[in-house]
Each structure stands twice: as structure tokens, then as C-alpha cells.
Amino acid sequence: MWARRIGAVAALIAAAATVLVADGSDGSADQGTAIRPIVWSACTTGMEGALGLDCGFLSVPLDYAHPADGSVKIAVSRRRHTSSDAAYQGVMIMNPGGPGGSGLWLPMIADYFPDDIAAQYDWIGFDPRGVGNSSPSLSCISTYTTARRPPYIPSTIVVERAWLRRVKSYAAACGRKYSATVLNHLSTADNVSDLESLRIALNQSTINYYGYSYGTYLGQGYATRYPDHIRRMVLDSNVGPSEVWERSNLSQDVAFEKVMQKFFAWIASYDRVFHLGNTRSAVVHRWYSTLAQLQKHRAGGVIGSAEMTDIYLNAAYLQINWPELGTMWSNWVRHQTGQPLVDYYGAGGDDNEYATYLATICVDAPWSRTWSRWKSETTKMHAKAPFETWGNAWYNAPCAWWPVHGHAPMPVGSRLAPPILLLDHTLDGATPYAGSLETRRLFPNSRLIASVGGTDHAASPDGNPCVDNRIFTYLRSGALIPRVRGNQADAQCKPLPLPVPDQLQAKPLRAGFRLGTLTFPSLRFRSTVWRRHVNR
């Protein structure tokens, strides 16, 4: 039970009031838009319901420059502070990444922080426009994410044409289902305006913000446009704003390859457990022979080479996944046990996250609209980074045929922004480390903590005291480490040790935590349903 800071009478008065957004600092205008406070009630569905959170909706214009063109509803959740009003530190708005990731469950992350910090904030989650419980909630082809897809590598013209039909049909379906007006207003810049509207609806002069992965780009945009509306901000695994989004996917391919090579070396170091090869090169050879086998004979009748790549991309996100992934691969190779792979992959059948992902990145910045250029760049990159390059290309390829063209990239950078805490691992695959260095340069008051040699992505706090204690100090008091000179991290930490296979542990690792009979994913675990970029 969380204490309520606002009495019933005050809540009724607030529900009837309206306030105005009056910014317009980016020239696009949130001028004179009426923003109503959120009317809260107990969440009744999903993780947020099981967690006992409050839920409500924020109504905002589809187009802030033309509010008469219609509105969208943003689903919002809240875990209320339990501290005294004197110790209260305001709202902590969180975004899990994506774009397209649902954030209604995210206030549960308060349990990963010390009790005093958890108690001092109102923890706020939300589904960005187009996502989950927000309205409209995008879906273009609901079955698009299901299994039994062609292999990613277009080794024949038949495979290439099959994928081109798929990506073109998806882009066309989105165009048929949603007007150009809607598709033009699902960008990160629009989400920045929504974040400002959320601040106003919550009756806060400033906000605290914690963004993971793509959520760092949203935070960067907000800190650029509204630097005086930030109290504290933590950005974990930073997107490089100069590379959104076509170039960033090519950079991602190289970074993913480095992590996967480290994963393969780890598998080789435990050959007595996995029996997949006792050198990295032997394990790599086993991987590609496994993919070739799955093209001919799907594991469990479902998992082919594309689906197998999707599953094992999780190794490039979080090292805690490695023991389970190693065991499943070994059991398939040695015993043809395919059901665990099928269960891990999931059923698919919901493309909301993917649709919103594309609806955001395809308009955030211009994309090449010529397939020959896509094919040439991807072929060159595949020679350097074969694990994920073609999978990444097909995942993003609908942007080449998206019904609306990309906008000019959102401005990022501010000398006026208050001190921001940046976090990253130097071998982060999903958001390469160069993005955090760039973000540090663009926000001269920021500080960067780097886990040197670590590969985890968007996982804080994760039990590493060198990083976590600095986060906790910042959230308690606003204190940060001194900024050092040069293009480098302001503090360096050793990453957490590499995991040990379950078979060699007294207690096997478990992903997530249990609440009653329900299991919820922790930030240290990501399930994959057709390359879910919950953390980009």
C-alpha cells in the first residue's frame, strides 16, 4: 500500500482543472494546448494490474501545431511515493526503449533501488503514442511477427524476392490502415512533446527521467528542448544522435558481431558443458552449420535459421542470458531437442511493438529509398559482421517503402541542460559506446560512467556497486562525480563477471522475479518475439 499525497477533495478539483502548454521553443509549438490532469484508478490488467499500480490516460493532440486535427491517448501508470512529503523528490518518468516498448510495467523497477530512493519518488511508466494501451494502438499485419520466415541471408534470388515482398507488403499495409497525418506524427519529436504534456498533467515544475536505450534519445530530445524542466536525468545505453537511424543500424551490426564473438568464446571455454567446440573458431563453425541444418529441418517444426538468429541475438543484449542460450543450443545439436527453442521464441501474433518501432524510426530521419543501395551496403557489411547484418536490414527495410518520408532529424544538445548521468558498457552491441561519448560531448554538464569491456545493454541497476552506488548518490542528492577532460568516460568500472553455466552453479540463474503465480521480466532478461527491439 502506497501513501497518497493528494486528498480526495484536492484530486477532484485537479481532475476538473486544465492547464496550457506554452512552449514553442522548437518552432513546432505546443502553444495554447489544453492539457488535463490524469484521472487515476487502480490498474486492472497486465503486469501493472498485478503490481497494484495506478493507471490513467493523458489526452494530447495528434499534431501539436494543429490541435483541431484530433487527439491521441497516452496510457500512464504510477507507483506512488511512500516517504513523507518533506522527503518527496517528485516524479520519476521512465522509458524502457524500443521505440515501441510498453512502459506501463516499468514502475516495478523501483524495487531494484534502495528503499529510501524507491520511497521518495512517484514512479511513472507510460505507453508512448501508438504503443500498447495507448490509443490508437498500431497494428498493420498482426501475423507478421510469427515464425517460419525465410532465411535472412539472401543466398538466392528467390529468398531475396520473398523478403522484398514481405517488407513492401508490410509498409503498404501500414499506409492503407493509417492516414499520412497519423504516420507523420509518431516521431520522437512528437514523443518529446508528449513528455512535456505529461509533466504538466502531473503538475510538476520539473521532472526526473530515467531512459533506457531508445529512451535515451527521447531524453536527449527533451533535455535539448526543455533544459529548465529537468531536475535529474539518467540515460542508460545511449543512442548516437548523429546516426539516427540508417547509419546506426550499420554501426549496430559491427557492435553485435563483437559481442557474439565474445559469446562464442565463452561457449568454447565451457566445452565440457556444452560440447559445441573448444575454440572460438570451432564454435563459430558450429553456429553456421547449425543455421544451415535449420534451413533444411526446423527445430520443433518452427525454428529455422532466421528464428534461431532472433533467439540468439539475446546473447548480444545481456550476459545473464548466456547459460540458458548455451544449453538450448547444445541440446538441439546433441539431442535434437527443439521444444525449448520453440518455447523461448514464443508464439508471435502481435505486431504492435514492431509497427510502432517502424512508425517512429522511419519518420525520425530520412532513409535511402533505393533497394540497390540497401543491398550494396548490407552485402559489404555482412562480409565484416555476418551474424546480424541481414536480419537487421530486413527488420528495418520497410522504411525504404514507408508511406511517409523521414523528417529532418531532431536537434540534440544543450549547454543549458543540468547535470545528466550517462551510463554504458564499452562493448554494448545494441547502442554502440560511441553514442554515449557523443551524448557526453553534446551535453557539457553530463557525466559518463563506463563499464569497460562489458557487453550488457540497458540493465541498470544491475548489482555492480561501482556503477550502482553512483546512480544511487545522484538520485538521492543530485551529486555527481567530477567531469574529466577529453572525449572519455568520467569514471570507469569493471563489468560484472561473466556468468557460469547453470550446470556448474549451486543455484541456477533465474530471469525475472515472481509475484504470486506470475513471472515478470527483469531488466536483465529479454525474451524475443521476432527480434523484439525492446531495447534498441
Task: Kindly describe this structure.
It is globular, with a radius of gyration of 23 Å. It is built from 18 helices and 14 strands. Among the domains are: 1-136, no CATH class; 157-179 and 348-401, no CATH class; 205-244 and 412-493, Alpha/Beta hydrolase fold, catalytic domain (Rossmann fold). It is α/β, with parallel strands linked by helices and 536 residues long. Helix 6 (188-201) packs across helix 7 and helix 8 packs across helix 10. The strands form three sheets. A ten-stranded mixed β-sheet has the order 3-4-5-7-6-8-9-10-11-12, sandwiched between helices. Strand 13 (513-515) and strand 14 (518-520) form a beta hairpin. Mean pLDDT is 89; it is low at 1-29 and 508-536.
Helix and strand content put the structural class at alpha/beta
Mean pLDDT value: 89
Which stretches are poorly predicted, pLDDT < 50 over at least 5 residues? 1-29, 508-536
The coarse silhouette is globular
Blueprint of the fold:
Blueprint: H1 8-16, E1 19-21, E2 33-35, E3 41-42, H2 46-50, E4 54-61, E5 71-79, E6 91-95, H3 115-120, E7 122-127, H4 157-177, H5 180-183, H6 188-201, E8 207-212, H7 214-225, E9 230-236, H8 246-269, H9 271-274, H10 280-296, H11 305-312, H12 322-335, H13 339-345, H14 352-364, H15 371-384, H16 389-396, E10 421-425, H17 434-442, E11 447-451, H18 465-477, E12 491-493, E13 513-515, E14 518-520
Parallel strand pairs: 6-7, 6-8, 8-9, 9-10, 10-11, 11-12
Antiparallel strand pairs: 1-2, 3-4, 4-5, 5-7, 13-14
Helix pairs in contact: 6-7, 8-10, 8-15, 8-16, 10-11
